[in-house]
Sequence to fold (88 residues):
Amino acid sequence: MIRPQLIYEHTQREVFFLDARKAGECARDIIEKSTKKSLIFAKGSQNTIYLEEALKYIIDPEERSKLVRQDTTYMNKKNAFWRRINGI
Fold:
């Protein structure tokens, strides 16, 4: 089984996050610190990964409205999920 991971070449590190928002923050920081252009491929499941939230950190703010699962019902589900995995 392949586990979700973020791999970036310039440091040869793997980072694993259960919270997509934390993955997004990490990706944004890597991109901002890089002196090279970045090409990002993102693939998430349709269940509880909520990868679209990570993308909010690295896409143009004007594009965020095009992301899936942004209505109130899904945002409530996501917030409950993050509270559960973060022990809040």
